[in-house]
Model the fold of this input.
Amino acid sequence: MALAPKNTGLVTRWWWVRHAPVPNPEGRCYGQFDKDCDVSNETLFKHQAKMLPRGAVWYSSNLLRARKTAEYLGRAGAEFGEVAIDPDLAEQSFGDWQGLTYAEITDKPGNGHLFWLAPPDFRPPGGESFSDLRERTVRSIERLTDKYRGRDIVATAHGGTIRAALAHAFNMHPEAAVRFEIENVSITLIEHFELADPAHAWKVAFTNYMPREIVIPAHGGGSKA
Done:
């Protein structure tokens, strides 16, 4: 006889959306620099807007590219009212490395991670480590999950922030978390079950969802932020 599923109580769903692409032809690290983004791909925005739940609470990082992405998801048909701003959802600060090209950073002490600018516990001069980013992201997740129990939360944020959220959900080492691919305007859904064992309360429904039939224009230079 199959066992009945346990009562896990209210489910709080986090719908993470990475910001739209940032034109970066020179391939510069921007981190917490307040760069604008390209929201011209209407087809992509309309597709992703249909994926997002109605009646959700909306949050954005304080950076323009995240706020603008939320605005244009609304224009594309997503339902939302006020978008609250939470600086804890901002991208990792790379300190003195911000504004340098990735080629220039290659020669800096501490550089040398295949999937990120530096090992997760390394702080660039004047900046944060990925582990620091995870700590403040988790602070926001725990506070908002408690405040909006059983609700849908849409958060427009950054690649680093979403990787930090995945690290928290999976209880994984930051070294593994930075290996997740998080594309621009992709959606990642992470669920919290209120009555579950706290050590096993998170479930990742899907990561990095993109409509593969839609061509995403390249801007050159790439970005890890």
About this structure: Residues 130-147 form the longest helix (18 residues). The CA atoms of residues 70 and 156 lie 6 Å apart. The beta strands are 11-18, 57-60, 83-85, 152-157, 187-193, 202-209.
